[in-house]
Amino acid sequence: MSLRVACAYRTVSTGVAAVIAGMIPIDLKIEERNRIRAYRLEGEETEEARARARAETLQKWQERWERDPKGQWTHKLIQNVRGWVNRKEGETEYETTQFLTGHGNFGTYLHRIGKKPNDLCLYCEARDSPEHTMFECDRWTRERQEINAILGTVGTPENLIELITIDGKKWKRTMEKVKMIMKIKEQDYRAIETIERN
Ligand SMILES: [Zn+2]
Question: How far is the CA of 102 from the centre of ligand 1 (A)?
Fold first, then answer.
């Protein structure tokens, strides 16, 4: 279900999909419910018990996320589960989820699933990882400058998500650029497939 919420490819691990979708893993949710009950039995107000239990859940989820061996790229982007999950604005969509998971129109991914004979970039022949597309490739220099102008600083895989989760306007404008890049890449991949077929 979290896979569908995050609009993710089926190859994305459940742990990564859950974080992207912001859906608390079911075992943590059950533990949380039990703790709320226990705190109320100890005499805490419901709201107070809920807030305390949720803070603990997010802490446990953070620890689990840090140990999760899957989705290294997503880990680089989303370091703080609480900040990500509690953001007030910021929907994930088909293209932005490709960027967040690395599962999508990237040479590294297409090569890994056997759709491309190599992992090279369409535009510059470097290894086309999501990091290459968004932060390095010369094809997107202008878009990157626009994103940096929105962010008010040089965006990196380590700071980008934090900067946009605390500011809904920055999220929207940055993700529009990300979506545009991913859409153009998709068109270009399709065009190449058509040429290769004929
Ligand atoms: Zn490139």
Answer: 15
